[in-house]
Amino acid sequence: MNTQHNDWLSSGFKDAQLMQNLVNKITPLANELHQQLGRPVQIMEVCGGHTHTLFRYGINTLFERDIEFIHGPGCPVCVLPREVIDQCIAWLTNDTCILASFGDAIRVPGTTMSLQQARAQGRRVEVVYSPLDALNLAKKNPDKEVIFLAIGFDTTMPSTALTVLQAAAQNVTNFSVYPVHITLIPTLKVVLGDSSIMLDGLIGPGHVSMVIGTKPYDFIANEYGLPFVVAGFEPLDVLQSLYMLLVQKKQMLAGAGARVENQYARAVLTHGNANALRAMAQVYTPQSKSIWQGLGANQEVGVTLQPEYNQFNAEFKFGAYQCERESTHLTPIYCDQVIMGKRSPSQCPNYGKTCTPQSPLGALMVSSEGACAAWYLYNGATV
Known about the structure:
By secondary structure, the protein is of the alpha/beta class.
């Protein structure tokens, strides 16, 4: 990346003058592209962390006439199938079971209840901050079976993999994981393969890219002809990435090809983190878990553990329970369409009415990276 883009590193990532300089560059360029295209420029921010940056700092409103931001599927909590929560609740019917989970996931609705509601009914659900916390919980409770709900994109997959390897090395027999991680590259292929989604460029996720690098995104430019910029999460990061995308788009309209750029060069390498990738390859193998919200049953999107680690795979260890419960959730819910960028949260009839952060119908209103949570937090119930 050209060093001129890093001039704020010594000034702070929220420097008002630097942000204004970028806004002054983006505004006429976005308007020019709008005129050339005959419509607003359509940019997808893949990661929910970027969605919250756009809303928190009002970036989404600065260019609303000329740029349409489309919220992508990069929220691992949001794509969780309800069946995952149902399965966890079914395992919790066994009094020897402790379910360990990240905080966001315990409020995700299942078919009839969330893990938080199951805990209120007396089931043992513990909030942890890492899979190592869950492993330590198992060591402290040798008479219990501790199951870690292993969610997240490639960002969190290495920590789960390393924890499984540690559990194997230490022979912790009462620890297992429910592997419902999801990989980003196949997810992006599902999104880009949908002809109903029109895009002019994508802001790529910084945290995932710290693990996998920038090289895996080459297919986006080569096969789909779309600019792609890996971005950090500060407002200056997002503004600069947006400017880089618009410059690329202008160059493409003049005949240049699309390319992958790395705005987040201070943290992301071309080929990613070799140690993390090695641990992931050792522990995981692709497998479809269920119908992912918005993505369907895609064999290559989900993962499970390699057979040699089946003693730490909750699905293998305890089996799949059938949860025959009558749904009490209201319909319709448009989570699938919001995840895929086909609707904005405000276009869901439940948004801000029957679906709120206090009483969520879907994971997008629960997750700290959810598009609906961002809309509600920064716009309120009415838009």
